[in-house]
């Protein structure tokens, strides 16, 4: 079910692999959100917020009740109607993101890895699988 939550305990080398399909929507393009959070409450910090919509990837973190500086990158790696695999690899300096085995970006850590306790996946998708390695 969406939103999907999973407990995580991050360390360097940890990987999350998400396989999904976008749901077709009438009149608008679907979006996908993946967040690495300190908890599930509304006041929880978000170490890494990844949002895809309109061929744009938006990345940010939410700390002490405030969004930080947003980073954007264009991405044409997702094709409506086709399944995709999204991987997040934890590096010592950030999160490396892969789409269908192609590295598309690295987001620098804004919060300590030890503070991240929860993975949240939401949006206009049908999840096929979520694996942690």
From TrEMBL:
InterPro entries: ConA-like_dom_sf (IPR013320), Galectin-like (IPR044156), Galectin_CRD (IPR001079)
Keyword Transport: no
Family annotation (SMART domains): Gal-bind_lectin, GLECT
CDD domains: GLECT
Protein keywords: Lectin
Coiled-coil segments on the chain, per record: none
Cell membrane listed as a keyword: no
Residues of the Galectin domain: 2-133
Pfam (any one): Gal-bind_lectin
PANTHER family recorded: GALECTIN (PTHR11346), PLACENTAL PROTEIN 13-LIKE (PTHR11346:SF15)
The protein's name in its UniProt record: Galectin
Organism: Cervus elaphus hippelaphus
